[in-house]
Amino acid sequence: MTAKSMDELVALAKRRGFIFQSGDIYGGLQGVYDYGPLGVELKNNLKAAWWRAMVYERDDVEGLDAAILTNPAVLRHSGHEATFTDPMIDCRACKSRWRADHLDQQKCPGCGSDDLTEPRPFNLMFQTQVGPVDDGSSFAYLRPETAQAIFTNFKNVTDSTSPKLPFGIAQIGKAFRNEITPRNFIFRVREFEQMELEFFVTPGEDESWHETWVASRLKWWHEQGVDASRLELYHVPSDELAHYSKATVDVMYRFPHGLEELEGIANRTDFDLGSHTKNQQDFAIHAKVEPNKDTNAKLVMQDLESKQWRVPYVIEPSAGVDRGVLAVMNEAYRVETLENGSERTVMGFKPHLAPIKVAVLPLKRNHSGIVAKAKAIKKELQALGLGRILYEDTGNIGKGYRRHDEVGTPLCVTVDFQTVEEDGTVTVRDRDTMAQQRVPADTLADYVVANIKG
Ligand code: GAP
């Protein structure tokens, strides 16, 4: 089961503290969202799972965390100043603005008028002034993709780590796009996060690496709990390719509002490193043709056999964190009817993604022995390093279980009189089966590790 509509997810996200409209006490800011107490945990867990798979479980990828403010020369030579645009039309009747390729008919979706302007390109990059003098020349861009800083740091990283091809540089971070029509909750927003890998390969081996990465990324999304039946591959036709791409395969997911892009996996050839390289025509095939006068860099590697210097090709799996959060929330969402006819909402997250791993509930919040034992258990489980363990003494165990079902907590541990006065066992209650079993408190840590570790 998934959510029946985006509204169900939006309501749960707000009610339970996953995601809020940014600045909502002032009416919000369109296309900008904040992650609440549970949202930040879910998002961090998704990013950690990506980092684990892309960096820690491999020996051919290094990490990077580069700045958001970007020198305009970078985005001039990457082609973004000239081509990072969407076609925009204006409605002359109600003065609203729309993305031309999002209109079903030649009518304004706001007021229905057909008095529309011709489409014209609208650059999506945000600019900000740098330094105290606002003379129009000292500005920087907020990066529209994390990738460019990987290319501009190519020499820094290769000089400091001496890798051999193939190897990659991974980065997770914010990106900004002045989307003409942000919509569908956190699907299309103006401030978002990307998880990007630039995987550099020997030219000629690029196509088979592209296939390898598509398969590997599909497998990873399955591991995050995304069902294969709601994922599809879209081989982007040549007239829709980004300016840097030789071939792109999009991983499409069936979001509540329709089948849309979750991740793009592009073969960017030597376009970017070549464009950022001085005298690029000596080294790269696909780079822009005019010599790059803004740099002294040669972002090249030596072929160990031929001894020739060449710009490597690059395969780029680029996933949106926010779209990933939306997909795993949609996958996790289910409403069950219980035997007594009541309903429960469950967020069936994979344990490694769950915002809270274990909730520890004392049966009586005014019984000093039970409270002390429950707090000691919380401390012990927290020290395992699995993620957030919550001590919660609201006093109503049944309601506590339902609340934790709705936020996706895989296990609840209840400490009661039997724990402190009889046999030292606690009740462990499973989110998915609702089964309860007594587990000795002194083996609880092993039980939790076995059930929570992803
Ligand atoms: N470096 C390549 C690149 O940026 P992209 O297809 O434009 O490629 C990659 O973006 C991913 O970033 C998308 O698949 C999507 O998940 C996410 N993304 C792009 N624009 C977004 C937006 N306005 N809001 C949320 N996520 C976005």
How would the blueprint of this fold be written?
Blueprint: H1 6-15, E1 19-21, E2 33-35, H2 37-56, E3 61-64, E4 69-70, H3 72-77, H4 80-83, E5 85-90, E6 97-99, E7 120-123, E8 127-129, E9 139-142, H5 147-152, H6 154-161, E10 167-176, E11 191-201, H7 206-223, E12 231-235, E13 247-255, E14 258-269, H8 271-275, E15 301-302, E16 309-310, E17 313-320, H9 321-332, E18 333-337, E19 343-347, E20 356-362, H10 368-382, E21 388-391, H11 397-407, E22 411-415, H12 417-422, E23 425-430, E24 436-440, H13 444-452
Parallel strand pairs: 3-10, 20-21, 20-22
Antiparallel strand pairs: 1-2, 4-9, 5-6, 5-7, 8-9, 10-11, 11-17, 12-13, 13-14, 14-17, 15-16, 18-19, 22-23, 23-24
Bound molecules: glycyl-adenosine-5'-phosphate.
Largest sheet, in brief, is: 7 strands, mixed
How far is it from the N-terminal to the C-terminal residue, by CA?
22 Å
- The tally of strands reads 24
Give the overall shape: globular
CATH architecture of the largest domain: 2-Layer Sandwich
Summing up helix and strand content along with how strands pair, one would put the structural category as: alpha+beta
Number of domains: 3
Strand order of the largest sheet: 3-10-11-17-14-13-12
Strand content: 25-35%
Number of helices: 13
| CATH H-level superfamily title of the largest domain | Bira Bifunctional Protein, Domain 2
Low-confidence stretches: none
Share of helix among residues? 25-40%
CATH topology of the largest domain: BirA Bifunctional Protein, domain 2
Highest-level CATH class of the largest domain = Alpha Beta
Counting copies of identical and different chains, the oligomeric state is: single chain
- Alpha carbon gyration radius: 26 Å
The mean pLDDT is 96
Bound molecules: glycyl-adenosine-5'-phosphate
